[in-house]
Each structure stands twice: as structure tokens, then as C-alpha cells.
Amino acid sequence: MAARTDQEYQNLKKRVHFVMVERLDEEGIEVGNVSDDVLMSFVQTNVSNFVAQNRMPLSAHDLTTLIREIYDEVAGFGPLEPLLADDSVNDILVNGPEDVFVEIEGVLQRASTRFIDDDHVVRIIRRILAPLGRRLDEASPMVDARLPDGSRVNAIIPPIALDGPSLSIRKFTQKHLTAKDLVARGSMTNECLDLLTQLVQGRRNILVSGGTGTGKTTVLNLLSQFIPRDERVVTIEDSAELQLNHPHIVRLETRPPNTEGSGRITARELVINALRMRPDRIIVGEVRSGEIIELLQAMNTGHEGSMSTLHANTAKDALVRIETLLAVNGYDAGERAIGRLIGSSLDVIVQLTRLPNGRRLVSEVVSMRGDSDNPYRMDVLYRAPDDVQTPETLVSGGASL
User: Fold this and answer.
1) Where is the AAA+ ATPase domain (predicted)?
2) Helix, strand or coil, per DSSP, at residue 255
3) What are the C-alpha distances in Å from 188 to residues 193, 202, 241?
4) 3-state secondary structure string across 17-63
5) H or E segment and range at residue 170
6) Angle between the N-to-C axes of helices 7-27 and 60-75, in degrees from 0 to 180, rounded to the nearest 10
7) pLDDT tens column, 209-233
8) Residue 95 to residues 12, 72, 123, 180: CA-CA distances in angstroms?
């Protein structure tokens, strides 16, 4: 048998999977009610018998591979199982049956994984969503959800996705990098770490800014570790990713609408509710919408030391993005008033970047020193050494954050 990417092999796998589903139904076996060993033995026996009866020319290696993949189809998420089990994979991006990409150490690369066809991709997506009570069909062609292990899933199918079903998985890890790890990997210097520690303990309002995949959540998680133990912290996230080893923490998570389109709980509602919970600090995993209004006002009215992240490529772009979020979410104020609100609320912006080799680092830390003439005046407190982007560094590899 040819390599796994051969269409003949994919057609064979489709036939065997169909037969396996029939056999499970005939035997009355419910996958969720039998042990892994029993199910594997059942799959192994029936796949081997099917191959023998049909006199298929499979090598021992190909037969073992087929058995493993059919087991994954029956018990798990099919071709995604090896990628989900691989700790080095951070993101899984499925653009179609033959276009699967993964991010490893900050670098996006094509995977050898493939699906049989579009229907196969959709079947796996629906299997992922089934335990979550989420639907995916023509009436509701896109979904954003969180798996029980904390991984984030986004899926979209035709007619919205013109070239076929698409799936994105941001894997959740409980092994967050420590401060020593980030220093050792060159994501920040000891000088930067000392500065950030002082800023958090000094109750400065901090915004972590950066593009997609620059490590914003990792840095926010790191900063949260420096919060004094006698303070009450409320966290608000779309997907619970922060892991704070803190004795007094309340974790809140947004909720998407149900299948009837009701029941949604937004980050903005949670920030408003958090203000009634007597927090010393509020941490918002990421500001994307109207929650920015309440967060800035909280920062400005007695909740010093609050933190959040924002998508922006530079510190100045972050301020422009905040202005835009305020405007589109109905904050009715003049340009000068908006500038004063932002300038008086934010104390520090921690800007992150990702280099061409996938390495992520803190590029600069700026302090907001606004005055009546310029509410957005900044002072640079830290800037990454120039040598981090030398040709030798760019080819050295090794991501961090």
C-alpha cells in the first residue's frame, strides 16, 4: 500500500470505518460504555478480518496503522488524535481535508495529517462539539467553543466557508512557562522581569499588547503570579486559560448563546458584575468589545493593578485600538475626553512581538505619562536589546512565551 496520503488508502479507510460502525451497532456496543482495551481489541479483530476476507495487500505496518486510525475514528477525533496528543503542537489549523497545518515552537508548518473528504472533516467537528451541546449546520454555520481541557475550538462550514469546512484549535496547556523559563529562552531579560515584578506589586494598571500568537496570555499569566497574596482577584475570560496560584481568586467565564440563541453572558456583563464583588484587582483575559469601557473606568476608580491583553502590533496601535473599541461600543465622549480616560486609566503597556523564526519576546515596556497637552505621552521603561534580531538570532530557532 502506498503512503498514507494516497487516495486509495483514504477510500479504504472510509470503507473500513463504515463496516466498523455497522459491527458496533450489530453487537450493541456503545463506545462510551466500554474500556479502551476492549474497544481496541474489537477494532483490531474486525479490521484484520475485513482486510483478510477482502484479500487486501497490506503490509504489517500498514495494517497496524489502519487499526490505529480506525480506533481513533471510533473512539476519538480521527486524524486529529496524534496532533492533540503531541505536546509540541500549540495550534491545529484544518483548511480542508488535505490542508492541515500546525504551529510548533511559534512556526507554522504543514502536517502530514489528512482527512478523507469534506464530510469527514465535518463529522469530526460535530464529534468535538457534541459533548458541548453546540450545533453546526447551515442554519448555524460557525461556532466558537471550549473543550473540557480548556482548548479553544473555532469551526466554520459552507456556505460561509467557500472552500469547505475549516477548523482551528488552540490547545490548552497546564505547563505554563515560568519567569526563569522566559529569561532562559531570551523572551525577556532579568532587568525586564524585575521591572514587571515591581510594576505589578506597585499596583500599576497594565495592558499586554501584541499580535496573534505573540504570547499575551502567557505573559498575563506570569504577571498575575506577582500579585500580593492578601489581595482579592477576579478574572474574566472567554476561555479559562489563566492559572493563578493565589489564595483569593474568583474565576468568571463568558458563555455563548444556546441553540435557541439565548443565554449569552458577555465579558462586559461580567466586568460590571465583578465590580460588585469587592475585587482588589480585575484581570480580563482579552478586551475585544464593550468590556473596555467598564475596565477602564474600574482602573480609574479604585481598582489599581488591574490587567488585560489586547491585539495590537505596537503600543501606539494599542491606544488607537482602545479608542476604536470605545467608539463602536457607544462611549459617547469627545476625542479629548476619551484621551483623558485612557491616559488616566492605563499606567503601563507591555508590548510583545514574534520574530520570523517563531521566537516571542517582550519588545518594550512603556509608561503612560500623559499631560493636558498629550494624554498619550509615553516613556520607555524597557526595550529589548538590539542583538535579539541579528541574523544569528533569527536562525537560531526556539520559540518562547
Assistant:
1) 202-356
2) strand
3) 7, 20, 22
4) HHHHHHHHHHHCCCHHHCCHHHHHHHHHHHHHHHHHHCCCCCCHHHH
5) strand 166-170
6) 50
7) 999 889 898 899 899 989 999 999 9
8) 23, 20, 15, 37
Using CA atoms, how far apart are residues 263 and 111, in angstroms rounded to an integer? 38
Here the cell at position 159 is: 456556505
Q: Supply the Cα-derived Rg of the chain in whole angstroms.
A: 25
- φ/ψ of 282, rounded to 5, equals -115, 130
Q: What is the pLDDT of residues 342-395, one digit of tens each?
A: 999 999 999 999 988 888 899 999 999 877 788 889 999 999 987 664 434 433
For 89, phi and psi rounded to 5 degrees? -90, 125
- Please provide the DSSP assignment of 225-237 as one string: TTS-TTS-EEEEE
d(CA 36, CA 43): 10
Give the C-alpha separation, 237 to 285, whole Å. 5
380: helix, strand or coil: strand
Q: What angle do CA 143, 148, 150 make, to 5 degrees?
A: 80
Give CA separation, 284 vs 61, 142, 316, 328, in Å: 50, 25, 20, 19
> What's CA 337's distance to the chain center, in Å?
34
Listed in order, strand segments (DSSP E) in 99-150 are 99-104, 107-110, 142-146
Type of residue at 303: H
DSSP 197-227: HHHHHTT--EEEEE-TTS-HHHHHHHHHTTS
Q: Which long-range contacts (C-beta less than 8 Å, at least 24 apart) are formed by 266-269?
A: 266/290, 266/291, 267/236, 267/238, 267/291, 268/293, 268/294
H or E element, residue 68: helix 60-75
Instruction: State residue 251's pLDDT score.
Output: 93
For residue 399, which of 215, 189, 211, 196 has the smallest C-alpha distance? 215
First and final C-alpha spacing in the chain: 42
Contact between 277 and 234 (Cβ < 8 Å): yes
Residues paired with residue 360 on neighbouring β-strands, in sequence order = 354
Interhelix angle for 267-274 vs 291-299, to 10°? 30
Beta-bridge mates of residue 353 = 361
Parallel, antiparallel or unpaired: strands 142-146 and 89-96: unpaired
